[in-house]
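User: Teach me something about this protein's shape.
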Amino acid sequence: MKKLSKTLIAGTFAAMLFSSATLFAQVKIGSNRTTIEATSNLEVEASTPNRQVKVNKTTGQVTIKDGTEGDGKVLTSDANGNVGDTVVLAAATRGQLDV
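Assistant: First, the predicted structure itself:
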C-alpha cells in the first residue's frame, strides 16, 4: 500500500512538472478584466477608455497608449521616473542628422 502511494505521488509530481513547462499565463488588469487580446501576455488598462499598456507574447513588443501618441514622438522620463512622450524635430542634410 505504501509503495502504491509513493508511486502515485511520484507520478503526479512528474506529470505536474513536465506538463507545466508548456503553460503560459495571460494577465489583465483594468475595468474589463474578462477579455485580453490573444496576442498579449499582459494588458494594463486605465479607467479612461483606450489608455493601456500591452506586452505582445510573440514579439515582446511593449505598446503604451495614452491618447496622445503620434508620429515623431519619443518616449522620455523625468527625474522622478514619470514617463511621457516628446516630439523630436530633426532634419537630415547630406547624410547627417541635425538635432
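Now, about its shape. The beta strands are 27-29, 40-45, 52-56, 62-65, 73-77, 83-87, 91-93, 96-98. Residues 25-98 form one domain. If you'd like, I can walk through any region in more detail.
User: That's plenty for now, thanks!
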